[in-house]
Target: AB hydrolase-1 domain-containing protein
Amino acid sequence: MRHFVLVHGACHGAWCWYKVIAELKQAGHKVTALDLAACGINPRQVDQVRDLVDYSEPLLDFLACLEPADEKEKVVLVGHSMNGFSLCIAMERFPEKIAVAVFVGATMLGPDFDYELVAEKVSRN
Model:
């Protein structure tokens, strides 16, 4: 069985995955659904979120605490909508902890772009 980490889309929270969580758990998988910064029950306020890295901090902190011992313990990241960016950041920082990422109608950077490059180009405009 796998460990799925579910990341909600824009204007949502972890609550949006409740049916998916039930199905995955019933199938015997481990599931973690996170509220990103200033979303759902996350206590951070919107004015405290400066950029997408701040916004993705709950996911990055979660992954930083994981210590997969082998390939079977790597997580399956699932992201929706705008938070494909959060998945991209996580994949860049923790490739050794992620088995695969699933982009569900989500923003996905191409192989020639990393988050830092895109953020730099956006900030210039």
